[in-house]
Specification:
The chain has about 525 residues and is of the alpha/beta class. Helices cover about 25% and strands about 20% of the residues. The strands form five sheets. Strands 9, 10, 11, 12, 13, 14 and 15 form a seven-stranded mixed beta sheet that branches. Helix 4 (about 125-130) links the parallel strand 11 (about 105-110) and strand 12.
Length: about 525
């Protein structure tokens, strides 16, 4: 065989290839894995120009994938002061008083709903701290924001609005906006007056973000959005260099989309760069529990949660059917039990056959027993984010649990139940909603936090969730997700074995190598 570009030796290789589960050496040429074997085999793979890397006993696995992330849109979401550490109103006031201003605005993000201490979000809670300045605070869920009175004035928001999707400008009993904007259409009302980050700064921030993500072991991210000028930004970044991660981007299909919009979504599937491409379409079947917009079988404690994001459920199902017929896979955001059920019902009604696209459900925060067993027979991928549970509490005193009540809160993030029922389970972070560090995703999948009461995943299941099962979720199981000849050379090396290492050691385990299509993106040997 031709000599390799790179030969990796001295590794504990977890190939996830059933034909050869373990090895110690891997050869790479032209972006592909060309050989897998033992160190003694490596001598035959080397030539005068081969780069040899001794991993010194590290564990080498298929490259890690964040199966749900927002690195491009997240640049906007994560702008300004980080409020993720704020736990109460006093802390919020202190943080806003010390916040920097951008063009006169106070911009902040990551605020936990629990910081309101049970009170309804209202601009009156922040006016003293902001001193009358326009302020825009994104809540951690990414589906709601709190803005100041001045921001409402600048945006021309003076009363309730109607939207095609389930969204709302929350108003008091006299019809005056409280500053609480729920769901994307409502939040977009403020977008035209917000300060804009220059394109050059955005490109620099994106490259820095992806480099930092790679340093945690990631080689790929499934990007669950494609808004604004994302394609232009990615093209500009690639014209100046290489992306540290491969990105698979899924544009949104929103309520009201007609034949023209669906045709455009199909056409977008042809768009690609060197290390990014458009793959699939993202839908929303509901919003969030804390925002009162998760679609539930029964109302939450405030009487909310009884409506789907798509007012016309038949229109959602029809849109999925059109895309399915065009060979386009879909990913639907569904947090509540009613939302999950409707997506499964929609997929169950689709025609099946060779070459049919694989559909997936994102989040699945609460789901009853009678739906767990439906995923595997229908071939629906469960895409879940274990770090989200950190916003809940074991005693169910958090906003998420209080809204749902004890029974539904007791069905939180049932990753293990879905795996045990045979479902494909892809794991992700949903950055910037939760930290992107892939090691934390592994750790929280194995040792669930907050309201999760069931057992965690085994070490092997967790690793599969960011490798082989993530590949299945993208329909790329023939290209990536295992270490075998002919597969893409997407690789991650960790100082510890992610399958057997103690959970508390995983978040700080050194990442020694990441490789994307044979290109080394992180190296700390």
């Amino acid at each position: 065989m031709p000599t390799a570009d790179i030969v990796l030796t001295g590794a504990k290789v977890r190939t996830l290839d059933p034909d050869r589960p373990h090895a110690t050496a891997v050869a790479v040429r032209d972006g592909l894995i060309t050989a897998v074997g033992d160190d003694r085999d490596a001598r035959e793979w080397r030539g005068p120009d081969t780069r040899a890397l001794d991993l010194g006993g590290a564990t080498l696995t298929p490259g890690w994938t964040d199966a749900h992330s927002h690195p491009v849109w997240g640049l906007e979401l994560a702008t300004g002061t980080d409020l993720s550490a704020v736990g109460d109103l006093a802390g919020l006031t202190a943080a806003l008083r010390g916040a920097e201003r951008t063009d006169g605005w106070i911009l902040a993000h990551g605020l936990d709903h629990n910081a309101f201490e049970g009170r309804a979000p209202h601009h009156a809670l922040i006016e003293e701290a902001t001193g009358g300045a326009p302020a825009h605070i994104r809540l951690y869920d990414g589906h709601s924001a709190l803005v100041s009175a001045r921001a409402l004035e600048l945006a021309g928001i003076d009363g309730p609005r109607s939207f095609d999707q389930r969204a709302s400008v929350v108003c008091d009993s006299e019809g005056r906006p409280t500053g609480h904007l729920i769901e994307h259409a409502a939040m977009e009302l403020v977008a035209p007056v917000l300060p804009r980050t220059p394109d050059t700064e955005r490109a620099t921030r994106l490259t820095g973000l992806l480099t930092a993500m790679a340093a945690t072991g990631l080689t790929t991210a499934h990007v669950m959005d494609l808004g604004g000028d994302a394609l232009r930004l990615l093209t500009a970044v690639e014209s100046a260099g290489e992306l540290p991660l491969r990105l698979r981007l899924s544009p949104w299909c929103m309520p009201g989309a007609g034949p023209g919009e669906l045709a455009e979504l199909v056409a977008l599937q042809r768009e690609r760069g060197r290390d990014w491409y458009v793959g699939g379409v993202k839908f929303f079947m509901d919003g969030t529990v804390e925002g009162g917009t998760a679609w539930l079988d029964h109302p939450d404690c405030h009487g909310q949660g009884t409506d789907a994001f798509w007012p016309d459920l038949r229109a959602y199902s029809a849109a999925v059917r059109v895309l399915h017929g065009a060979g386009v896979p879909t990913a639907t955001h569904a947090i509540g039990d009613a939302a999950v059920r409707h997506v499964l019902d929609t997929v169950a009604a689709l025609p099946t056959g060779d070459g049919s696209p694989r559909h997936r459900i994102e989040h699945i925060e609460t789901v009853p027993d009678d739906q767990i067993g439906r995923f595997a027979p229908l071939g629906v991928v469960a895409s879940m984010q274990p770090p989200h549970a950190a916003y809940t509490r074991a005693d169910h005193s958090d906003e998420w649990s209080l809204r749902l009540g004890g029974e539904r809160a007791g069905r939180a993030w049932r990753c293990r139940d879905l795996r045990d029922a045979g479902a494909v389970l892809a794991l992700g972070s949903d950055w910037p909603i939760a930290p992107y560090d892939a090691r934390q995703v592994l750790a929280t999948a194995r040792a669930p936090r907050g309201a999760v009461t069931g057992p965690g995943l085994t070490g092997a299941m967790a690793l599969e969730g960011i490798t082989s099962h993530a590949a299945l979720a993208a329909g790329e199981e023939h290209l990536t997700g295992r270490i075998a000849a002919g597969f893409r050379a997407d690789l991650t090396a960790l100082a510890l074995d992610p399958v057997t290492a103690p959970v508390d050691e995983l978040p700080d385990a050194p990442v020694l190598l990441t490789m994307v299509s044979g290109r080394v993106t992180t190296l700390t040997l």
